[in-house]
Amino acid sequence: SDIGSQRDRVVTQEEWLQKWEMGNIGFHKEQGHPLLQKHLDVLLNGRSGLRVFFPLCGKAVEMKWLADMGHSVVGVEVSEQALQEFFAEHNLPYCEEPVPEISGAKKFQSTSGNISLYCCSIYDLSSSIVGKFDGVWDRGALVAVNPRDRQRYVSLMITLMEKNSSYLLVTVSYDPNKHKGPPFYVPESEIKGLFG
């Protein structure tokens, strides 16, 4: 799987925070992602009241959409600004509390209790902190993770999944020598190798 010049590319946490501060968030979809709407039945698989995980969630509108359907949503994001904007843009009251197990981390929880968003590095999370999930909506996480961290990321995700969970993954296909990423190019062969 040739990912070209992207193999060694590293985007720092500071660069991601700067994208949010500058409003350089072309990856955010105001109307929600059409592929989630199209494949929602695959994620839910006829089940209700699921726990759904949004890795590197930003301020994804789908979190509110799924919570309104009766599911419990958990997200993680390094940008506190993104999480505050999510609650503000949906007029959702929330409370903020520290996460004792993770130094400097915060949890933003909707007053209704069905949306919990963690402000920290995804690699600080574990199932002992956030539990396990029935579904994962990975719309922009695997393609945003630095290529050298993919195995670490997928290994973590696997530990967060319940036995019968569904994992919806969106990737992008292009010539990795013509764009430095993110989003990074993740060939299908690599996805199969990572997730088995």
Could you write a compact summary of the structure shown?
By secondary structure, this protein is an alpha/beta fold.
Describe this structure in words.
The protein has 196 residues and is an alpha/beta fold. It has a single domain (51-195), classed as Vaccinia Virus protein VP39 (Rossmann fold). Helices cover 30% and strands 20% of the residues. The protein has 8 helices and 7 strands; from the N terminus they run αααβαβαβββαβαβα. The chain has helices spanning 13-22, 34-38, 40-44, 62-68, 80-89, 127-130, 150-159, 188-195; strands spanning 51-54, 72-77, 94-98, 106-110, 115-119, 133-138, 161-169. It has a 7-stranded mixed β-sheet, sandwiched between helices. Strand 6 (133-138), helix 7 and strand 7 form a beta-alpha-beta unit. The protein starts with 12 loop residues before the first helix and ends with a helix. Belongs to the class I-like SAM-binding methyltransferase superfamily. TPMT family. InterPro entries: SAM-dependent_MTases_sf, Thiopurine_S-MeTrfase, TPMT. S-adenosyl-L-methionine binds at residues 16-27, 56, 77, 121-122, 139. One of its GO terms (biological process) is methylation. Pfam families: TPMT.
